[in-house]
């Protein structure tokens, strides 16, 4: 496997000839991102960083990830409908994590008031790495499932054509034909359109909730434009805009700038920095409305690392998928070891094993957006500090996944053409729609492969660490 594309990677002349061709193709295909310096202008744009060549991915593991996606969709959706489970699982976390507490309070508020929302839309991305064990076998291990603002469904729809072109240019026509077609933005838009239709008002709009800094706007635009193609109006607003100009009518319809919002699709709101104090009022307003939130606050909470850890306990999955024994097995198969840091004997044991072998684990707080996890010696430092206080319950511990590094050339604007040792992470996009109790759509809608140099433990494409890639099934 390590030898794939070796002829190219060992030939500097070919690399230098092919890299600009690849970059031009990426630009032509619309694999775009705004610049760091001008994140709110499209006057000058960059290509989104990507690998020169597709990375090998074991076919069986790719198929496994694909085949478990509908199970995960169902699981997330069912947990989101179980407030007592969420309350119990997050009870320790909310005491020490202000962000999760604020989300939880909103969740509680709308539960007590009674949900006005009757149509539910989930757009998630389950992320995996390929764990390479000492006996030479490779297995699929879930990193986590993202239930809010899962990105790159748009851009990853455009990268297959880039790698196909690169391979053809290199005379590898047959290999080019093996690049998988991929179009998550189409499936995501289909889900949004379905939710919009079920909301049942032709004049109502889809509102993208966006950050003030909009560097990754092109990724959104692919989905937006698919909606416009279906004659569905899309508006883009910040939480602030909703706060200042949004209201509920007597029917609990969400009205923003005179538009009735059928679907509020969050591409922000997943980390504390996304909210200025007042913005929380906007979130509450939206949650209280009958608009379809993607995700609603309950589903966002399902995506916490704490819930992930709890699901790995014996018999928890069964609680939600009693009628789906095979799904339970398929899901469990992808779980890495996850350990609680709650106060008590079990948590004490976790502290002990983590401090003894910090290199075998990742310590994770309840955060999204990359760059928050703790590795190696720092795990020891942090745990030594918090181990005797309730603070430790803001984290969970996870087995560290160890993929086998493979060579690739990471192309970044202004970067050098060089070969790096890399590891990849596979994401599977899932979309589901539920009306009342009835699931009316449940699909896997495509994939994302991101690759980064091994010197980085953490960080995604937005952070400038990982780059877009395509799986080359082997
Ligand atoms: N168990 C693990 N073993 C090895 N690497 C890991 C593990 N968990 C996370 N990572 C690395 O850290 C990155 C971020 O982890 P994770 O997805 O849990 O955090 P996040 O902040 O939610 O990120 P994202 O913005 O991608 O949702 C992953 O993309 C992966 O590279
Ligand atoms: Mg995440």
Automatic annotation (TrEMBL):
Keyword Metal-binding annotated: yes
Pfam families from the UniProt entry: GSH_synth_ATP, GSH_synthase
Functional pathway: Sulfur metabolism; glutathione biosynthesis; glutathione from L-cysteine and L-glutamate: step 2/2
InterPro entries noted in UniProt: Glutathione_synthase, Glutathione_synthase_a-hlx, Glutathione_synthase_C_euk, Glutathione_synthase_N_euk, GSH-S_sub-bd_sf, GSH_synth_subst-bd, PreATP-grasp_dom_sf
Amino acids binding ATP: 144, 305, 364-373, 375, 398-401, 425, 452, 458
CDD domains on file: eu-GS (cd00228)
Keyword field contains Ligase: yes
Top-level taxon of the source organism: Eukaryota
Binding sites annotated in the UniProt record for Mg(2+): 144, 146, 368
Reactions listed under catalytic activity: gamma-L-glutamyl-(2S)-2-aminobutanoate + glycine + ATP = ophthalmate + ADP + phosphate + H(+); gamma-L-glutamyl-L-cysteine + glycine + ATP = glutathione + ADP + phosphate + H(+)
Annotated GO CC locations: cytosol
EC category: ligase
PANTHER family in the record: GLUTATHIONE SYNTHETASE
Protein family: Belongs to the eukaryotic GSH synthase family.
Role this protein plays: Catalyzes the production of glutathione from gamma-glutamylcysteine and glycine in an ATP-dependent manner. Glutathione (gamma-glutamylcysteinylglycine, GSH) is the most abundant intracellular thiol in living aerobic cells and is required for numerous processes including the protection of cells against oxidative damage, amino acid transport, the detoxification of foreign compounds, the maintenance of protein sulfhydryl groups in a reduced state and acts as a cofactor for a number of enzymes. Participates in ophthalmate biosynthesis in hepatocytes.
Protein name per the record: Glutathione synthetase
Naturally occurring in which organism (per UniProt): Pelobates cultripes
């Amino acid at each position: 496997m390590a030898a794939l594309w070796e002829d190219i990677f060992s030939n500097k002349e070919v690399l230098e000839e092919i890299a600009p061709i690849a970059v031009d193709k990426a630009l032509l295909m619309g694999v775009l991102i705004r610049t760091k310096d001008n994140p709110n202008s499209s006057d000058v744009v960059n290509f989104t960083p990507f690998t020169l060549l597709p990375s090998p991915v074991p076919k069986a593991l790719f198929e496994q990830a694909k085949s478990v996606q509908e199970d995960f969709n169902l699981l997330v959706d069912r947990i989101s409908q179980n407030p007592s489970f969420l309350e119990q699982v997050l009870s320790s976390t909310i005491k020490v994590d202000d962000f999760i507490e604020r989300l939880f309070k909103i969740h509680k508020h709308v539960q007590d008031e009674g949900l006005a929302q009757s149509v539910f839309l989930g757009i998630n991305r389950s992320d995996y790495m390929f764990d390479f064990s000492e006996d030479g076998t490779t297995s699929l291990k879930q990193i986590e499932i993202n239930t809010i603002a899962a990105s790159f469904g748009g851009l990853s729809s455009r990268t297959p054509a880039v790698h196909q072109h690169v391979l053809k240019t290199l005379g590898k026509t047959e290999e080019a034909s093996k690049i998988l077609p991929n179009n998550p933005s189409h499936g995501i838009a289909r889900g949004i359109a379905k939710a919009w239709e079920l909301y049942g008002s032709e004049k109502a709009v889809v509102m993208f909730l966006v950050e003030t800094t909009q560097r990754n706007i092109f990724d959104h635009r692919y989905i937006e434009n698919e909606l416009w193609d279906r004659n569905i109006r899309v508006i883009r607003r910040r939480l602030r805009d909703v706060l200042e100009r949004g209201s509920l009518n007597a029917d609990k319809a969400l009205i923003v700038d005179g538009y009735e919002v059928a679907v509020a699709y969050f591409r922000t709101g997943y980390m504390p920095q996304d909210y200025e104090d007042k913005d929380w009022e906007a979130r509450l307003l939206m949650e209280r409305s009958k608009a379809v939130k993607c995700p609603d606050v309950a589903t966002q909470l399902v995506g916490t690392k704490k819930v992930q850890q709890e699901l790995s306990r014996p018999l928890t999955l069964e609680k939600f998928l009693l009628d789906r024994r095979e799904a339970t097995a398929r899901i469990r198969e992808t779980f890495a070891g996850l350990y609680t840091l709650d106060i008590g004997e079990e948590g004490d044991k976790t502290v002990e094993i983590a401090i003894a072998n910090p290199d075998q684990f990742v310590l994770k707080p309840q955060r999204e957006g990359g760059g928050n996890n703790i590795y190696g010696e720092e795990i020891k430092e942090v745990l030594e500090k918090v181990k005797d206080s309730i603070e430790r319950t803001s984290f969970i511990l996870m087995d560290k996944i160890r993929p086998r590094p493979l060579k690739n050339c990471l192309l970044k604007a202004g970067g050098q053409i060089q070969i790096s040792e890399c590891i990849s992470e596979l994401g599977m996009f899932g979309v589901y729609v539920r009306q009342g109790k009835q699931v009316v759509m449940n699909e896997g809608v495509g994939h994302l492969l991101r690759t980064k140099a091994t010197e980085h433990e953490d960080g995604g494409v937005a952070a400038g660490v990982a780059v877009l890639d395509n799986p080359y099934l082997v």
